[in-house]
Amino acid sequence: MNHKAIYALYANVVSIEDTQGAMDKDGNSVTINMDNVNAWVDPEAYKYKRQLEYPSIEEQLDKIYHDGIDAWKVVIKATKDKYPKG
């Protein structure tokens, strides 16, 4: 179950239990449309994808030291272009 999608789509959900499902603040069950949950796209997914592809901080600093800021910007821009915001 995609908890992040449920919380984003259903503002009244305050907890999600594997056995009981989604619950509101009063402990009432909230009906979830799984088609909507499965179709939801995380608007911040680009951030996670970028983090996985960026070189480590050590590698970035080494790039700056040896090749300069402009060369470093080229490396970072390639990832930013690959995974644009929203």
Overall body shape: elongated
Beginning-to-end CA distance, first to last residue: 23 Å
Sheet with the most strands, sense and barrel status: 2 strands, antiparallel
* Number of separate helices: 5
Order of adjacent strands in the largest pleated sheet: 1-2
Please tally the β strands and state the result: 2
The fraction of residues assigned to DSSP E strands is: 5-15%
Radius of gyration computed on alpha carbons: 20 Å
Average pLDDT level: 95
SSE topology string: HEEHHHH
Question: Which structural class is indicated by helix and strand composition?
Answer: mainly alpha
Number of structurally distinct domains? 2
- Looking at the chains present, what oligomeric state does this protein adopt? single chain
Proportion of helical residues: 40-55%
> Which residue ranges are poorly predicted, with pLDDT under 50 across at least 5 consecutive positions?
none
Secondary-structure map:
Elements: H1 3-9, E1 15-17, E2 21-23, H2 34-39, H3 45-53, H4 57-67, H5 69-82
Antiparallel strand pairs: 1-2
Helix pairs in contact: 4-5
Protein model, in words:
The protein is mainly alpha-helical and about 90 residues long. The chain folds into two domains: about 5-40, no CATH class; about 45-80, no CATH class. It has five helices and two strands, in the order αββαααα. The protein has helices spanning about 5-10, 35-40, 45-55, 55-65, 70-80, and strands spanning about 15, 20-25. It has a two-stranded antiparallel sheet with strand order 1-2. α4 (about 55-65) crosses α5 (about 70-80). The protein is elongated and about 60 Å long.
